Amino acid sequence: ALMASSLPKSMVYVIDDDLDVLGSLRFLLETEGFDVLTFRSGAAMLDPDIARRGDCFVIDYKMPNMNGIDLANYLRAHDITAPIILITGYPDQTIPEKAAAAGLHHVLLKPHLEENLVTHIRQAMQEQAAR
Q1: Contact status, residue 51 vs residue 44, Cβ threshold 8 Å
Q2: Across the strands, what pairs with 107?
Q3: What is the pLDDT of residues 19-74, one digit of tens each?
Q4: Is the separation of the CB atoms in 104 and 84 below 8 Å?
Q5: 55 vs 8: CA distance, rounded Å
Q6: How far apart (Å, rounded) are the C-alpha atoms in residues 50 and 111?
Q7: What is the pTM of this model?
Q8: What's the N-to-C CA distance of the chain in angstroms?
Q9: Helix (H, G, I), strand (E, B) or coil at 10
Q10: What does the alpha-carbon distance between residue 35 and residue 84 come to, in Å, rounded to a whole number?
Q11: 19-31 vs 113-130: helix axis angle to the nearest 10?
Q12: Core-most of 6, 42, 43, 126, by most CB within 10 Å?
């Protein structure tokens, strides 16, 4: 087995229309040793060649034109199997149900992401590796 330090960093894609959120999540995740690419809309993920390079997706639920669940469904329809973590600032009881129906097991509420996000990313990637 390779030593962990010789493995390539995991690429996390963060998709959110809020620049402040993108900046703070990029900082948090890079500090934790991830490579991070940020996108301001789901439209950037509509190119499967771009999407396939992500090891994990952190997607905001409420964005203009395409919400996070629609984006997750699009990614899954294009055989992109990387884990997806949905983040939302809206404590709407239906969001976890919609997320589960789309096959998303991780839903985190803003603004308390920092406490849980890294744990959820690592857990989701371990679950993915175990499949």
Answers
A1: no
A2: 86
A3: 999 999 999 999 999 999 999 999 988 888 899 999 999 999 999 999 999 999 99
A4: yes
A5: 11
A6: 28
A7: 0.90
A8: 19
A9: coil
A10: 16
A11: 60
A12: 42
Pairing of the two strands 35-39 and 84-88: unpaired
CA distance 69 to 130: 24
d(CA 29, CA 95): 24
Interior CA angle at 115 toward 54 and 14, to 5°? 25
Q: Which two tokens stand for residue 97?
A: 């149900």
Place of tokens 């329809």: 77
In order of 10, 85, 93, 128, the CA distances from 42 in angstroms are 20, 14, 23, 22
| Tokens found for residue 54 | 């992500």
Q: Are 38 and 26 in contact (CB under 8 A)?
A: yes
